[in-house]
Specification:
Rossmann fold, about 190 residues, five-stranded parallel β-sheet, 8 helices, alpha/beta
Length: about 190
């Protein structure tokens, strides 16, 4: 099962993507985690990415697509994946679709985590406190929300037109959201 999770920061995408990964034995491919790992490793790529992330901006498409394609080419992603953190704009969505087509894959479902900005912001601030994430400051969170509304929300509509978008009520508890996801994925699996 090839899945994509979309939604603003603090919507619970990462939490639920990890659970999907565990339940369905498919890798959670988080571009944010991959970027942070490169940053912590101190690679030249990681330093550049860190500077971009600290400003709350998006990493260039070509670099991100190359990284995702390499990751999806690994053996553990052969039976599926849950992609988290990409695409963040229409050009990236089109590039992702083209890249998946080139490697003979397509998305089975796009899970859209719908949450109010205030709820997502509060959750992101709490995450910053518990995970000591330097890229979750109030200013960066506000900037990321601006970018989300201007660039990523159109991606939701792009995927809605495919008939594969699954809207989720992400303001509810983790377990309530998981129940909604499990029911949706059961339908996706039955349709496949």
């Amino acid at each position: 099962m090839n899945l994509l999770v979309l939604g603003p920061q603090g919507a619970g995408k990462g939490t639920q993507a990890k659970r999907i990964s565990d339940e369905y034995a498919i890798p959670h491919v988080s571009t944010g985690d991959m970027f942070r790992a490169e940053r912590e490793a101190g690679t030249g790529f990681g330093v550049r990415v860190g500077e971009i992330m600290d400003r709350g901006e998006l990493v260039p498409d070509a670099l991100t697509i190359e990284m995702i394609e390499a990751r999806l080419g690994r053996d553990d992603a052969r039976d599926g994946f849950v992609l988290d953190g990409f695409p963040r704009n229409l050009a990236q969505a089109e590039a992702l679709d083209a890249m998946l087509g080139a490697i003979g894959r397509s998305l089975d479902a796009i899970l859209f985590f719908d949450v109010l900005d205030a709820v997502g912001t509060e959750r992101a601030i709490k995450r910053a406190e518990t995970e000591a994430r330097s890229d979750d400051t109030p200013d960066v969170i506000a900037r990321r929300l601006e970018v989300y509304h201007s660039q990523t929300e159109p991606v939701v509509e792009y995927y809605r037109a495919t008939g594969k978008l699954v809207p989720l009520h992400a303001e509810r508890s983790i377990d309530d959201v998981w129940s909604e996801i499990a029911a949706a994925l059961q339908q996706v699996g039955a349709a496949a």
